[in-house]
Task: structure prediction
Amino acid sequence: MTTDANQTLWRFVRLDQYKRPSGTSRETMRKGIFGLWLRLGWGGKAEESVFAEKELSQVPPELVDKAAPDPDWSAPLSAVTAVLDSWLDVKVPEFSNQIFVGPPYHGTPEILTAWAQARGWRLVAAPSPEMILTGGQDWLTQFEEDDGPLVLPHLEQCYLRHYDGLTLLRRLLDHIISQSRRWLVGCDSWAWAYLSKALKVDTVFPTPFILEAFDHERLKIWFQQLAAASKESNFVFRQLDSGKYVLPPAAGDEVSGDRSQGSNAESSGFLKNVAAYSRGIPGIARAVWRRSFAFVNTTEEDGEARDKEAPAAEDGNSAYPILVKPWSQLNLPGFPGQQVSSGLLMVLHTLLIHGGLWRRILPQLFPLSPMEILEYLYLLEAFGLVESGQGFWRVTPAGYPAARLTLQSEGYLTDAI
Amino acid sequence: MPSNIPDTIKDKAGEIFNRLDQINFAQIAILVGLAWVSILLLERLIPRLAKRLPSRLRMYLLPSIPVFRLAILIITLAMIVPMVIQTSLQNLIAILGFTAVALGFAFKDYISSLIAGIVAIYERPYRVGDWVTIDGAYGEVQSLSLRALRLYTPDDTVVNIPHIKIWTTNIFNANDGNRNLLCVTHFYVDPDHDAARARQTLHDVALTSPYLDLNHLIRVIVQEQPWGTHYQLKAYPLDSRAQFQFISDLTVRGKDALAKMGIKPAGALPAPALRDYSG
Result:
């Protein structure tokens, strides 16, 4: 992974300069017509594949992990330093605090954590929900110990949408304003939208930064980097229907015939659709990318004809041509056509503005019974929109775009990204 | 049977109306049937469509029903009238004049309601989906026919109110074609407390309600009364249909928050509610 590639890939901009990538016009039309069809209840599940899943060979999970592994969040550290350059250089800056805002799965907390560890700045863990509801005085006293710089990667976990859940954050903001110590804060974009309305948090942090959107060009570089991270395997990604390359092949992997004809070497428009659907959010693009792997075109199964397209790498590593489902056949999570209940949306919205929530705290945040909340969570889980890990519920990366779209169309407060 | 109608009137009627054997009754019946079916479909399909599409579109779709219905009626009438009468300006004036006089005497209020119904389509004192109070009845306007509107009250009762009311009665419209409306939640508490803290707490109660529309300001009005302190928490829910859940949520959580602060409810009833039974 070169430094130049990293500099192209990771760049932070001011929040108001964030530009979402646009999709292909064909996809926009298809989505509009198909979306209306679903709304009217004449369709089945959103984005239903025309092929049954069983018709396509599943890519083994371990191979998916190799083709699109967890990203290395230490790569963007120089980009953080670059954007904070003038702030770090000045002894007494105009504002003692800086904030990085990012939508879910944008990687902001991970990047800030890695940056704090690399710079030796103290990391501040978010308080527990119980602490928040009691005002969090004990948690706040830790800031009186010294006046060294602090990194708080999860501002969204420092409040609860409860009448007792804002006191701690108000006290923290007072502390940040009144002290001259440096604070580097990360905040989820949904919490940022809510807190800007509720507590005017945008006046405390007047210059929020955000990771620049991952358009199809950036995704191309990033997905190649991710696939290359696996030293044991070489991957070639081609479109299942047209055979076009989704990612440009490395020189050794390209079929000789393709080069002369030039047609197959063209990359498909798939990544443009991924970039638009994921709203430029890398973590969501990666989740969609992983879901799009349809079929491993192994030489053992398909004989000579495929053997030409999937040459074994010269270094003796296994070569894996992965076929990528056409965009229109991707089975992405979404709400079914029928009307969505307000309780369901309420739960979804609350999960988003907190960046996920512990199940034990949910009954205190809703005018719903615990059983109703559980019912809604299971329903959302069945739609593929939320997931739980050890009692912590959050929106899934692949389901986030559909969740956002529905909440926006129902008039809920959404982030600006 | 000899006719009592003078010949001059017979002649005049003959000049205005087509002869019975010239009128295509089957065609008229088909037109009336088509209009009836179209209106029926319209009244069924648009509400269904409004339910499936995002809530914000509901306020645009539902009020279009009476406009479409009026259009269908006018088109049908425009097609039927030339089949029945001999179309000339003179004939039209005569027919309209006669109809106006006859119906005006017989169905004065009914006709007035119909005219008010047409005026209501253009002036829009209420639309389908609006929350209105008319003559003490509060509810959501469910449908508008040419003669009356159907109001659906929170007590699950349908009230039919003729449009004629718009000439004589004040119409209180809470949302006036918008999706959201202001809800006021009242708290009556003992005066011995920290009012600034109580006000902030009630503000936070609204701010943290999942029903709240954050695009509107929250206001807390405090008034000292002889019997205690009266707080009015004013905020907008996301959807006007959730107004009662919103008020209930604010009331339950507001009472809870005030109780945690040690604030007691007002001990006495508001003065106007007290009655003097001594005399």
The radius of gyration of chain B is 28 Å. The mean pLDDT of chain B is 85.
